[in-house]
Every structure is written in structure tokens, then in C-alpha cells.
Amino acid sequence: MDHSLLNGLRAIVGPDSLVTEPTARFAYESDGQMLERQMPDVVVLPRDTAEAAACMKLLHQANVPLVPRGAGTGLTGGATPVEGGALVGTARMRDVLEIDTRDRLARVQAGVVNVELTRCCAEHGLFYAPDPSSQAVCTIGGNVANNSGGPHCLKYGATTRHVLGLVVVTAEGEVLDLSSPDPDPDGYDLVGLFVGSEGMFGLATEITIRLCVEPPVVETLLAIFPTLDACCDSVSEIIASRLEPSAIEVMDKLTIEAVEASVFAAGYPKDAEAVCLLEFEGGEAEVAATVDDVLPILERHGRLEVRRARDSKERARLWAGRKGAFGAMGRIAPDLYVADAVAPRTRLREIVGIATEICAERGLLLSNVFHAGDGNLHPNISYDRRNRDEVEKVLEAGELIMRACLERGGSLTGEHGVGLEKREQMHNLFNAQDLEVMARVRCALDPALRMNPGKMIPLRRRMETRAGGLPRREESSA
Ligand SMILES: Cc1cc2nc3c(=O)[nH]c(=O)nc-3n(C[C@H](O)[C@H](O)[C@H](O)COP(=O)(O)OP(=O)(O)OC[C@H]3O[C@@H](n4cnc5c(N)ncnc54)[C@H](O)[C@@H]3O)c2cc1C
Fold it and tell me: CA–CA separation, 338 vs 431, rounded Å?
């Protein structure tokens, strides 16, 4: 990379916040999906909006591609700098700028870790609701970019429901303040547009978010099932019965075994074929009534046992097992392909069955741990990325599972985003016109297509956009 550019960046952020050594840049060559890797040419770690804007202006003048990065826990290659260039990380933007208990909102820098925010609000009886299982590490900025979900998003909704305002630095280094005191601001909903844009519309530096009030009563149940099918069917019936637990999570036998053999051991029964973790929140009468309605459903589907967490310590232990499940799978194989599929909640058993068949036909080891209440499945395939043959099978299986979901009215991604992983599969869900509109929106915000290049928009569409601008509608062939 050009020395005068590096010197310019160094002058803005200081030598400690510019990573140029190859051994240090190595840590940034991928996110949690390590199938595609590429080292950035430089990593910049600004401390605030002004530093980020000054750096991004220089990078714009030098026409350098630029990739935002939070904690790098993404699972679709979203923060992987496939075209090299500069990676702008938010690791030094970790201040909680304001907690407003009266208006129940917080203003944070983008690099604040999800769980830290909830810790900061706990003394006020408030919390930040979207709780990805990676919440001990992932950043609010990454959550915004991926519109992340989590177990309790069944009740509270994914990140987009909680973002009230944003300060964004554009690809050209301009600062946009998209925050407004008005809960229903005039003009286009640019905050809504930015949430889920996967780092392609700019770098979020400050985020204003809604805080929720801690519920008076929380009840957590662990239902143990003799089969995964029975477990899925009970979830489908709970949803169809219009009951509203705040979380419904399912884990299968392989996951349970891995969790119980790990530091996340939660006391799940090792001989169970599946467990369902259910949580209920609200007033005492409301929680008791919902639990009373759910118990017979679990019974009808042949649950072997239902355990109740007696106190907050037991509840935390049950959740630690669930949230540590992906990590625990590391005991089984060096790599884990976490598919992020969505299916109608009436068809959970069917999709799980199809995924099982697809993997069995290819000799792949499948486990399941998922946000069942949302219909957001995670068929997880254990593999070894050094085995090219196995990698090919894993990718093929992943795509077939996704196609099966789409054919049954599901979607391409529940919460992890498109990134690199599902870029070409966008053709399976969207037609040429849909993709054209997406490409046009992207061009409006980043005409030079330098922000996080190579993600989300399928390659064919991208090449057409780069060569000679956007095609007219009738010419479009993506
Ligand atoms: C063990 C494990 C469990 C997980 N569980 C869940 C889960 O329950 N629910 C869920 O939704 N996800 C889950 N994930 C996926 C991941 O944690 C989320 O997508 C998370 O929001 C990513 O945050 P991050 O800070 O690590 O972002 P990164 O991985 O660094 O980046 C993710 C994307 O956001 C962009 N980005 C990052 N910061 C900014 C910013 N400030 N401005 C603009 N763009 C930015 C990047 O360019 C990239 O495209 C899990 C991952 C792991 C490893």
C-alpha cells in the first residue's frame, strides 16, 4: 500500500491504531466463516466518528476498497476483505456514550460489545433485547449491519426493531447523522435502510438503541424429548396455538453431547434425543397461564420430562449451554458450517428431516441447534476444511438445504446475513428486477462500489454494474 497513504492514516489514528505487520494483519483475514480468506493491506482502528471520517476520506481519495469490521464473529464471510484494501475496525470504539433511563434509550459507539450494554443498564432495570448467542463478543455495530437475532428475538424482534438512530460515515468520508428525537421521523427511513446492509452502505460509528424493561417474572423450562421430530412438532403446535413464550430453542442429541462434554455443560440429559428450552416473561399471572397452556402440548408430543429452573443461577446455566453450543461443537471436528435457514414453523420437522437426508447421503455429520420459535434453523455440519472433497460436499449440502427451505416458503437467511456465503444463492430467491433495485440502492450510497466489495450482490450483477453503470430494466439479466 502506498506509503503516503499509510502515513496519512497514521497521522490520524496514531501508530498504535494502524496495523501493517503481516503477522498482525493475519488475524483479520476472515470472520467466523473461514472458507474464504484474504488479508487486508492495512487495518485502521479509529477511536471515534471524526477519526473514522478522516481515514475514510483519505481511503476514498486513494480509491481503496474498505471493509468495516466489528468483532469478526460473522458466519458468512461478511467481514472478509476479499479484495484486500483497508479494514476499518471498531475495536477502539467501545464507549457507552449515554444511558437515558427516562426515555429508555442508550447511545453507544459501534464497537460496544452486546452483553456489555445490558450489563451497563442492569442497575436501572433495563436491558438490550437482541441477544445473539455470540453476545459476549459481538459488537452492536456488527449486530446492526447484519440485523442480528437471538433466542429472545421471538418476543422482542431482531435488531432493526431496536435501532432508533445512527451516525454513519459514508464511503466518501462524509458524516450522516440519522438520529432524530421524533419516534416517527419525516422523510425516508434511512435508519431502517442501513440496518442489515452488511457494511456496504457505510460505517456505523454511533448507534442509538431502545432499551427494554426487565420483566417482573421469568420462567425457564427444559423439555426433554425421545425424538427430534416430537420436539419440533411440539414447537409447531405451541406457535399455532398462539401462545407466546419469549424464547423457544431446540438442540439435538449430538449438540447435547458436545455441550455436556464442554465447559458449557448445563446439565442437559445426555441420553435425550432432543431438548427444548422455553422461556416465559411477563406478569406473574400471565406467565403462569402461558406455562399452563404449554405443558399439555409438550405432554401430547411425548415429552419425557420437563425441568423448571429454580432460580436465576439455574436459568443462566441452562442458557450458557445453549449459547455455548457452537463453540462446544469444536470438540467434534476442526470446523463447523453453520447454515442459517428459515422455514415456516409448521414445517420444522420436515426441513430437519430433509437436512438429515442430504447430509447422510454425503456422509456428513449434522447437528441441529436452532431458534425454533422463529423458524430459524441452524443445521450445522462438522467438517475439516483441509479436506477439499469434504468442503465441496458441505457447500453442496448447504445450498440444497437452503433450496429446500425456499421451496417450502422459507428464506435464505434468518439472521447471519448473505455475505459471501449466500451471494450467488440470491438468484434463487430474487428475480432480476429485485436484484437490480438492490444494486441501484447500493450505487446511490456508494457509487464507486468500494464499501465491502464482493458481498451480497451476485457476481454477474456486480460485473454489469461496474461495467458501464446499471443496466436498463429490459436489459437486465441477473
Ligand atoms: C458462536 C456464535 C454464535 C452466533 N449466534 C448468533 C445468533 O444467535 N444470532 C445472530 O444473529 N448471529 C449469531 N452469530 C453471528 C454473528 O455473531 C452476528 O452476525 C454478529 O452480529 C456479528 O457481529 P460482529 O461484531 O462480530 O461483526 P463482524 O463479524 O465483524 O461483521 C459482520 C458484518 O457487519 C459489518 N460491520 C461490522 N461492524 C460494522 C459497522 N460498525 N458499520 C457497518 N458495518 C459493520 C461487517 O462488514 C460485516 O459485513 C453467531 C456467531 C458465532 C460465532
Answer: 26
Q: Which atom of ligand 1 is nearest to the CA of 74?
A: 29
What number is the average pLDDT over the span 396-410?
A: 95
Half-sphere exposure of 82 (CA within 13 A, CB side): 18
Q: What confidence tens digit (pLDDT) does each residue in 350-363 have?
A: 999 999 999 999 99
What CATH class has 333-407?
alpha beta
Mean pLDDT of 202-220: 97
Residue 112 C-alpha to ligand 1 middle, in angstroms? 12
Nearest atom in ligand 1 to 144's CA: 21
Dist CA 314 CA 210 (whole Å): 28
What is the bridge-based pairing of β-strands 66-69 and 86-89?
parallel
CATH number listed for the domain at residues 96-213: 3.30.465.10
Nearest protein Cα to ligand 1, atom 28:
72
Residue 192 CA to ligand 1 center (angstroms) comes to: 17
CATH ID of 3-89, from 3.40.50.261, 2.60.120.260, 3.30.43.10, 3.40.50.10490: 3.30.43.10
Sign of the CA dihedral with 419 first, then 442, 433, and 411 last? positive
Fold match, 96-213 / 217-327: no
Pocket, ligand 1, Cβ cutoff 6 A = 31-32, 67-75, 78-79, 90, 110, 132-134, 138-139, 141-143, 145-146, 148-150, 198-199, 203-204, 326-327, 415-416, 452
What is the reported pLDDT for 477? 36
